[in-house]
Structure formats: C-alpha cells, structure tokens
Amino acid sequence: MARTADLRGDGDGHGEPVARFQSYLHGGTSSLVSTLPTVIVFPVYKTVFRQQIHNTPVHQAVGQLYKEGPVKLYRGVVPPLLMRTLNGTLLFGLQDSIHHQLSLSSQNVVSASALPALAGFGAGIVEAVVFTPFERVQNVLQNGQNDRQLPSLKSVLVKLKAQRMSSGFYRAFLPITVRNALGSSLYFGLKGPVCAVVAGQGLSPVASSFVSGTLTSMAISLALYPLSVLVANMQAQVGAEKKGVWLCWKDLWRSRGRSVALLYRGGSLVILRSCITWGITTAIYDLQKKSSD
C-alpha cells in the first residue's frame, strides 16, 4: 500500500490510472468489510464518547446507555458507517496517488523511506476536509443531551446548516486536521516496517498485515487520544460554539482536574475498537494489493 504500484502492460504508463484506481477500490472494499466490527463495537464507542464528554467512569456510562434503552443505543451509527467506507476509499487511494507523484518529482530530495509517511500526511489533510462534517453530525447525535432538542438526523442537519461553517459542520476543524494528518502519516510510515518485522517472525502475510495494522493503530490511538477527546467536547453541543481551540483545551484540561489519567479515561476502549477495525482493514487491503500486483 505504501509503495508505488508496479506498472503493467507495455511500460508506456497507460497502466498507471488503473493502478491508481485499484488503490481507491481496495481501500473502499477493505473498509466496507471492516464496517461489521464497527457495528458490533459501536456500543463500546458510544460508551467512550460518554466518558469523553461527561468524564464518567465506565460503569456510569454503561448505566446511562442502559437506561436510555436499545432503541437509542445505535443513535448516531449511520455517520460512522458511511464515513468508515468512504474514508478507506479516499485515504488509501489518495495516499497511493500522492506517493506515486512524490516518487516521480522528489527523487534525491526526500528519502524513499519517508515518502509513505509524507503521502499519508497529505491524504490526512484532505480526509479532514471531507469528513469533518460527518464527525460533527455523529458527535451531536451521540450526545444524549441533544435528544429532546434534536431528535432526528434531519433536525441535526437543518440546525448545523443554519450555523456558520466554522461553528456548524466544520466545528473543531483544526484539531481534526492535526489528528488526521499525523495519524495517517504515522500509519503509512510505520505499517510497512512493522509488517516486515512481524513477517520475520514466521507469520503468514495476512497475519503479518493484521498484526501490523493492530500495533500501528494502537500506538496512534494512544498518542492522539487527547485530540479526539478535545474534538468530541467541541462538537457535542450545537448553538454554543463561541470558544476557540485553545480555550476549549484549557476548559477540558481544567475539567479533568489537570490529570492525564482522567484525560485518557475511556482510552483503552478506543484502542480495542481501533485495533479490531484497522487490523482487519490493513489485512484485507494488503491481500487485495498483492493479488492485483
């Protein structure tokens, strides 16, 4: 995935568009398959969200969801399902396309080993531009305090549309961009080397890819989790978005008693969810990529 796809045919470059298109197709397919774990672990994600917003222990967050009942348990699941499938298509495809262009234009300027991470950084920025509205809608829907005022997806969309872009659909765009760009850069930069190390231990290619995706996502989730908490708190409410990123971060840090442990409350569940989805996505994508080469 992090390397330039081999050109096929007579070598005149006509195979390049096909190779680039396959990256988008493989990314979308692998992400679509991984939506099943997303559905299964969505209650886990929603539990984490409640911990991020209300700073409650896991048993209290579970108790809140239990009282709300099974009907509301999956409120807000549609945006992440759409985002997950489209995200894989765009992220893997763009990273491969950017990597290909960089490999042609930056010879002897940027180390070849750094190109996957650099291409991932660019893909992450585009990802933030496209998917920030999805995340915004998802976080509004998952906040139980919005149930009465905004009971449906349509009502949320209408409310956000009436806001300015910076306080509506693109609330928390800056921290999302930083998180996605760094996360994508680390993922594509580390995935290949980690996979090679794991494969050296005698595991099959599919198992190596799965373990690589799992370990890489674990490291990324742990490092960038505070940004996700900040985003969730900035996006959960509608109509009161007056504070900027820095003031929101100060309020969040103060609300957590200036404790790193409380800031990471729910982090273990995020890592679990991320390991499952990205492990499967990485294994399926690498398998398809090798089959088409």
Write the layout of secondary structure elements.
Elements: H1 16-33, H2 35-40, H3 42-54, H4 58-68, H5 70-73, H6 78-105, H7 115-142, H8 153-161, H9 173-199, H10 205-235, H11 245-255, H12 260-263, H13 267-292
Helix pairs in contact: 1-6, 1-13, 3-4, 3-13, 6-7, 7-9, 9-10, 10-13
Supply database-style keywords.
74% helix, 0% strand, mainly alpha, globular, 13 helices
Summarize the structure.
It contains 13 helices and no strands. The chain is mostly helical.
Q: What would you call the structural class?
A: mainly alpha
Distance between the termini: 11 Å
By DSSP, the count of extended strands is: 0
Rg is 20 Å
Question: What percentage of amino acids are in beta strands?
Answer: under 5%
Q: Please tell me the overall pLDDT.
A: 82
Number of helices: 13
Please trace the helix and strand order, writing H or E for each element: HHHHHHHHHHHHH
Percent of residues in helices:
over 70%
What form results from the Cα inertia axes?
globular
What's the main sheet like? none
Weakly predicted, low-confidence segments: 1-15
Can you describe what's shown?
By secondary structure, the chain is mainly alpha-helical. 74% of the residues lie in helices and 0% in strands. It is built from 13 helices and no strands. It has helices spanning 16-33, 35-40, 42-54, 58-68, 70-73, 78-105, 115-142, 153-161, 173-199, 205-235, 245-255, 260-263, 267-292. Helix 1 runs antiparallel to helix 6 (78-105), helix 1 runs antiparallel to helix 13 and helix 7 crosses helix 9 (173-199). The longest helix is centred in the last third of the chain and has 31 residues, at 205-235. It is globular. The protein starts with 15 loop residues before the first helix and ends with a helix.
